[in-house]
Every structure is written in C-alpha cells, then in structure tokens.
Specification:
Length: 266
C-alpha cells in the first residue's frame, strides 16, 4: 500500500476485489475512508497504520463502493457522507453540488460536485488546497477512460466530465478502479497519433507489470490523453466517422455517446 505524502495529510491506496481502489485519507492518527466496498481491507489498513476511523465518504450507490459500510459501523459510529439523490440508506450527511464539508477528525475541507452519468446521484469530492489538489471521483472519471452510463444520459456524463476537466492540471485523480491499461488500449485505437497516449501506455504497462497502481493520475494527464475528455478533437471525430459510428457533422454530445458505445464493445 503506497503512501502518498501531501502536506500533513496522506492517502493510502487500498486494493479490494479484482480492480477496486478504496482510499484512506489520514493524518497519522485519524482516517476517513472513501467508498469502502469491502470492510476487511479497510480494517487491515487502519490497524497496520494505527489509525482511528472518523468518517466515511461515499460517491454512489453501487455495492463495490458501499458494501463495507455496515460492517465498519458495527465496530464504530462515525458520520457517513454521501449523495443526496442516489438512494443510499444510512447516510447521516446528505450532500450535493457546491456544498463544503470539514471531514471529522481531519484538517480536510472538501467541496462536493454533482457528477451524474454512471448513476444519477453520483457525487465527487474535491480538495482545493494549493499544492495538494485532490479529486475523489468514484466511477465517473477513470485514468484514461470514464464510467459506464448505467443511469444517466451521454449529455449528463459529458457535462460531469467537463466539470472535472476544469479542475487545476495538478489535481490528483483518485478514481475507484484500475482500468488504465485497457482504457489506454482504446485511447490508442481512437487517437493513434497522440504521442502522450503511447507514452502513458508504456508507463502504465510497466507499473502493472510489477502490480503497482497507475492511479492517482492528474487532471492535466487526463486532458492530454483521455478520449472521453477529448471527443471534440478532430482526430477522434475522424476515427468515429471512419469506423461508421458517427455521421460527419454530428454534435459533440453525439460524438461522446458514440465513443462511449464503442468502448462498451471494444
Ligand atoms: Zn459504480
Ligand atoms: Fe465501481
């Protein structure tokens, strides 16, 4: 579990299931966990680092993001922050766009963004501290890709991703799954001339070869290499048209929708 140092707060990467990452934000004493889909790995990380859980933060209602909450709460009562409109039971602090929270036990302020698309109520948490910009975006933005549209429309997801893309370039992107290499394989197919994608693929493949995580990435890297933030680029539009997946002259949202559908079957 690598430990990224950012001023006084650190983020632990806790792998779970096949390809999930659960995030533990801590100050060496207290800890908040983001999307604890499984309680076991969280408990192990807390005890290994001598941490006391002080808060739970949720991004959306899928089981691989909330499944460990009851078990964690059975041992300790802590506030549960989560989306107002995603149908999650047991949230004690319901959140939506523009709200700010101070995470109990930590010197950590987070701002909430509504990012519908993967689910309708999905939220993201942003830390706006110069030199330590962080984004916890669940299954909305992935390294090199984006979440599937289980509930929202392409237009909603495109708007949500645009909000995230507008964050500072140095924002660390703590997404919830290790999908990077397969996402970049798709990125290479739709934007073969993007040298940044090729470089990133080399880096990600090397990391995965030694089981290292490829996340967090940064917003700057995503803007340069993630096709789901680049669907208005002429090269990507041309790939969609050449593949028979888009009519030339179609709208940007149509291009986004066609890109997401292509990835679903890639
Ligand atoms: Zn999900
Ligand atoms: Fe997930």
């Amino acid at each position: 579990m690598p430990n990224q140092q950012n001023s006084e707060l650190s983020v632990l990467t806790v792998p779970a299931f096949n390809d999930n990452y659960l995030w533990v934000i801590h100050d060496g004493q207290h800890a908040a966990v983001v999307d604890p889909g499984d309680a076991g790995p969280i408990r192990d990380a807390l005890s290994q680092h001598g941490l006391t859980l002080t808060a739970i933060l949720l991004t959306h209602h899928h089981a691989d993001h909330i499944g460990g909450v009851p078990s964690l709460l059975a041992h300790t009562q802590v506030p549960v922050f989560g989306p107002r409109y995603d149908g999650i039971e047991g949230i004690t602090q319901a959140l939506g766009e523009g709200e700010r929270i101070t995470v109990p036990g930590l010197a950590l302020e987070l701002e909430v963004l509504d990012v519908p698309g993967h689910t309708l109520g999905h939220i993201a948490y942003v830390r706006r501290t110069p030199g330590a910009h962080w984004l916890f975006c669940g299954d909305t933005l992935f390294a090199g890709g984006c979440g599937r549209l289980f509930e929202g429309t392409p237009a909603q997801m495109a708007d949500s991703l645009a909000k995230l893309a507008a964050l500072p370039d140095d924002t660390l992107v703590y997404c919830a799954h290790e999908y990077t290499v397969s996402n970049l394989r798709f990125a290479q197919a739709v934007e073969p001339d993007n040298h940044g994608v090729a470089l990133r693929m080399r880096d990600a493949t090397a990391k995965r070869g030694t089981r290292l995580p490829t996340v967090p990435s940064t917003i700057g890297l995503e803007r340069g290499t993630n096709p789901f933030l680049r669907y208005t680029e002429p090269g990507i539009v041309k790939s969609l048209v050449d593949a028979g997946r888009l009519k030339s002259g179609a709208s940007p949202v149509d291009a986004f929708a066609a890109l997401r559908e292509w990835k679903n079957v890639f």
